[in-house]
Structure formats: C-alpha cells, structure tokens
Amino acid sequence: MDTSISHRNQNPAKPHLKAWNALTRWILHVPLLRTMADRQVCELHFAGIRSGKPITLPVMYAQQGDTIVILVGAPGTKLWWRNFAQIHPVSVWLHGVSRTGSGHAVGPGAPGRARAAGIYTAKFPDLPVENDPLVVITLDPYAANPSSRSE
C-alpha cells in the first residue's frame, strides 16, 4: 500500500463537501437528531502526523465490539487516512460519547484485513470493499465519564 503523501496532487475539499461535513458533524452532536445518523456515521478527531494540526471529520463506520472499521473509498483523492499508515491515536465521537483509541490502515493482504473487511461488509453489503484501504480503530476500554456525554 502506497502511503506517501504528494502535496502536488492534493485537491482541496469542494465547498459543498465542507458544508456537508459540517452539517453531518452538527447532527451528530444534537441528541434528537443524532439518532438519524449515528448508526452509520461517527466523527473522528486526530492530529495530523506531519502538521500536528487537529483534524475532525465524519465517516461511515462499521462496528464489532470495540473495533471500528472505516472504508476509504477513492483513497487517491483523500489524504486523511494516510495519517494511519502507522498506529496513530484517535478519538471517536460515537453514539453521543467521545471514545479514545488507536487506528491503523490496512490494505490488501495485510494482517487483519479479512476480518476488517468482513466487519464492514456485514454492515454495508452493497458497498464493495475491493482493494480500497480500511482504517481499523481499536477503542480503549470504555470508562464512564459524564463530561464526555452530550447533554
């Protein structure tokens, strides 16, 4: 899997995509609206591996226990997932709770790929996984923290 980042080919997000992501993130933080989205969408928070800048984005996910799997569709047009070429800390806003964990990208033939693809395909059978990378997040054990819950 090629994880090099080429800034020459970097395409800035289109304005409508930024607006859609902002709306989706807002929905995930409004308790009455969250139920519409949080069965399929969670929010990732992590620091850029090179810049250290915080990155926040909504993603479709599949979950099995404390494992979250995210399909990186059209990976050549996205850079965020390359931060997970090595194990990288991440926070996930999931079901109104912030959870910490670590994530890593898995490509075809990588250890754990078949299990991760199976988790994703079980939830989204109509979305082909094919050879696209998957980001696998292992959540830290859940500890009740009232301050992490949305009111």
From TrEMBL:
It comes from Rhizocola hellebori. InterPro entries: Split_barrel_FMN-bd. This is Nitroreductase family deazaflavin-dependent oxidoreductase.
